[in-house]
Amino acid sequence: MKTMTCKQLGGACNIEFHANTFEEIAELSKKHGMEMLQKKDLDHIKAMGAMQQLMQSPIAMQKWFEHKKEEFNTLPSN
Q1: Using CA atoms, how far apart are residues 37 and 21, in angstroms rounded to an integer?
Q2: How far, in Å, CA of 72 to CA of 21, rounded?
Q3: At 78, is the pLDDT very low, low, confident or very high (cuts 50, 70, 90)?
Q4: Cβ proximity of 19 and 40 under 8 Å
């Protein structure tokens, strides 16, 4: 099990997500982001806007995803 924060994954807070794979942790982050969007949390909305900008370029998004996956893989297991 590895841990990453919302901020490490492009978000706005220090809540921690715990998962065995990067795909699992990305899904937890996405769920958290949707919850914060529903709560109209401005910091998270700004972070989502930045991610949406990144998503405009498939190449940039792929590089970001690969970098975060690599970062996840280098983390120590809890």
Answers
A1: 25
A2: 8
A3: confident
A4: no
